Amino acid sequence: xxxxxxxxxxxxxxxxxxxxxxxxxxxxxxxxxxxxxxxxxxxxxxxxxxxxxxxxxxxxxxxxxxxxxxxxxxxxxxxxxxxxxxxxxxxxxxxxxxxxxxxxxxxxxxxxxxxxxxxxxxxxxxxxxxxxxxxxxxxxxxxxxx
Length: 146
What we know:
Layout: E1 2-7, H1 13-30, E2 46-52, E3 55-63, E4 73-79, H2 88-104, E5 109-114, H3 118-123, E6 127-128, E7 133-135, E8 138-145
Antiparallel strand pairs: 1-2, 2-3, 3-4, 5-8, 6-8, 7-8
């Protein structure tokens, strides 16, 4: 696996296309959710990508404090269906946490998690910090890594 971290303005057109394609494959098509993916947060974020054989199979968006929450945040967490069950998601999140600490300092990290992934995020140290809420028709909770 080849991991890369880039600011939005440093992404190539091929990388940006691969990011949008993977996010749409999972969040729009697989989860059958019509929503506005281009939410104006990409330009202010860092983009963490996991490549295998020139194919993007894992991705997160690392948001600085103040862009989504007061705390730094990890969002748009996605792994390709072809990589599931291989530990790629856990590796992606562990490396994303390392990167967010390197970028913004070791402070609490907040996420908006789909409720069905609560156990996964809890296993990484995140704790539920909100009631359940609906976002784009999917149950979510806010979680914080203290």
